[in-house]
TrEMBL record:
Its EC number(s): 6.3.5.-
Catalytic activity line of the entry: L-glutamyl-tRNA(Gln) + L-glutamine + ATP + H2O = L-glutaminyl-tRNA(Gln) + L-glutamate + ADP + phosphate + H(+); L-aspartyl-tRNA(Asn) + L-glutamine + ATP + H2O = L-asparaginyl-tRNA(Asn) + L-glutamate + ADP + phosphate + 2 H(+)
Protein name: Aspartyl/glutamyl-tRNA(Asn/Gln) amidotransferase subunit C
Assigned keywords, A-Z: ATP-binding, Ligase, Nucleotide-binding, Protein biosynthesis
Name of a matching Pfam family: GatC
Family affiliation: Belongs to the GatC family.
The organism of origin for this protein: Paenibacillus chartarius
Length: 95
């Protein structure tokens, strides 16, 4: 499968990009080369290969949650432009 200059123009229009004629031809060639490579991958025998979502196993590297004291409410609200009953007061965004 190859990408035509018209295909590049359509995608550029959808992305609201302005491309020169040289860029359109260049991108058409580059995108065609990418699709040609993908076609090679489609010819590989993947029978019996389990699908994976990641090439490497994912490991959670976050620390354990631990409860600890929080800041005093007065200190938290000290720099608030407006507060009401211990909460930040902000202008309404919904009517």
């Amino acid at each position: 499968m190859s990408i035509s200059k018209q295909d590049v123009e359509k995608v550029a229009s959808l992305a609201r990009l302005t491309l020169s004629e040289t860029e359109k031809e260049q991108f058409a060639g580059q995108l065609s080369a990418i699709l040609k490579y993908a076609e090679q991958l489609n010819r590989l025998d993947t029978e019996g290969v389990e699908p994976t979502s990641h090439a490497m196993p994912l490991v959670n590297v976050m620390r354990e949650d631990e409860a600890r004291p929080s800041w005093p409410l007065e200190q938290v609200l000290k720099n608030a432009p407006d507060e009401e009953e211990g909460h930040f007061k902000v202008p309404a965004v919904l009517e």
